Amino acid sequence: MEVLKVSAKSVPNSVAGAIAGVIRESGSVEVQAVGAGATNQAVKAIAIARGYLAPAGVDLVCVPTFGNIVINDEERTAIRLIVERK
Fold it and tell me: HSE on the CB side for 53, CA within 13 Å?
């Protein structure tokens, strides 16, 4: 499954386009975010991607989980949003 990493500075429309492209290609994508700002941008992007895919009859579901990732040799807790076709 492809992983898209989102930061607090990510542009939601750009991330939404990437999400929609991966969903069209493979049917699912994992969106990772660390921190409140990044999680906010990720959730906005998923909502926008849903709007991009709706005209084609594609609806999305999102399953949130926690995951541990390493950033600069430090282990951090990330929000992992698994986005799939409904």
Answer: 26
Cβ neighbours of residue 13 closer than 8 Å, sequence gap 6 or more: 45, 48
Helix (H) or strand (E) run with residue 83 in it: strand 74-85
- For residues 81, 57, 55 and 19, what is the CA-based torsion angle, rounded to 10 degrees? 20
CA distances, 39 to each of 9, 15, 21, 45, 47 (Å): 11, 12, 20, 10, 12
CA 86 → CA 2, 9, 28, 83, distances in Å? Answer: 18, 29, 10, 9
Q: What angle is formed at CA 28 by the lines to CA 39 and CA 60, rounded to 5 degrees?
A: 70
pLDDT digits (tens, 9 = 90+) for 36-63: 999 999 999 999 999 999 999 999 999 9
